Amino acid sequence: MEPHISEIFSFSEYAKDLWKSVASLYGLRNNVARVFELKREIAEAEQGTKSFTEHFGYLKKKWDELDTYRPQTTDAKILLKRVEEDKIFDVLSSLKPEYESLRSTILMSAELPSLSNVCATVQREETRKKVMNPNSKSIIDLDAAESSALMSSKDDKRRAMPFDKDQNSRAKGKREVFHCDHCNKTGHTKDRCWDIYPHLKATFDKNKLARAAVDDNSSFTIDQLKDFFNQLGNKTERKANHTSG
Q1: What are the tens digits of pLDDT across the range 20-56?
Q2: pLDDT tens profile 160-171
């Protein structure tokens, strides 16, 4: 015995009393849980980075331990029982992680229930979970639907917005720069150049002055402004005639 185990039975007077105590403490222990664990470890074993010798040694160790719990026999009753146990193991190993506590309870029971009883227990647990959490699925579905609708709405808005190159440039903090091929200056194009079309400058000055008068709330009267614009118009006409002559 291991020292920490032998201390439990250190006061037994006779060997018979010792083995009775050992049998009462460990004899009723069910090995089904360990058998289930060994079979799952064997089924999930992969070589990975190990050499074949190491991999085979790992499997051989599991097989030998399994044989200690399931020794060779020709008893038909025992063989039929093992077949049913294997079916139970397949069912339990395929359950969702949320059934882990139920799986442990079944495997740690004093005697493994029959396959039909295991299935009935799982079904009852499934019903209990639905009754205890009736709105869990609906809440998840609702959240998913709201998220999908929100994303769809954003996509529709982006598709509905027309593409504006100038707006896109302004959004990036950039301004379109005009260049005149005639005077080689920036800020205007050739069809707006004052060297070629002097009257455009007079029109620009007239509009600028009118905006300034309105913005500054100046005391010009309407008649004074009309007279001023007439003078500018006559001046522009004379320049245009001079240019054409």
Answers
A1: 888 777 665 668 888 999 999 999 999 999 999 999 9
A2: 555 454 555 454
**Is the pTM above the cut of 0.70?**
no
* pLDDT band per the 50, 70, 90 thresholds, residue 201: low
Assess contact for 92 and 84: CB atoms under 8 A.
Answer: no
Question: Alpha-carbon distance 36 to 95, whole Å?
Answer: 14
How far, CA to CA in Å, does 108 sit from each of 34, 71, 99?
A: 9, 21, 14
Q: Nearest Cα to 209, choosing from 231, 189, 188?
A: 231
What are 214's two structure tokens?
A: 């309105």
Cα of first residue to Cα of last residue in the chain, in angstroms, is 128
SS (H, E, C) the chain: CCHHHHHHHCCCCCHHHHHHHHHHHHHCCCCHHHHHHHHHHHHHCCCCCCCHHHHHHHHHHHHHHHHHHCCCCCCHHHHHHHHHHHHHHHHHHCCCHHHHHHHHHHHCCCCCCCHHHHHHHHHHHHHHHHHHCCCHHHHHHHHHHHHHHHHHHHHHHHHHCCCCHHHHHHHCCCCCCCECCCCCCECCCHHHCCCCCHHHHHHHHHHHHHHHHHHCCCCCCHHHHHHHHHHHHHHHHHHHHHHHC
Residue 189 pLDDT exceeds 60: yes
Question: Any idea which residue has 């998220």 for tokens?
Answer: 147
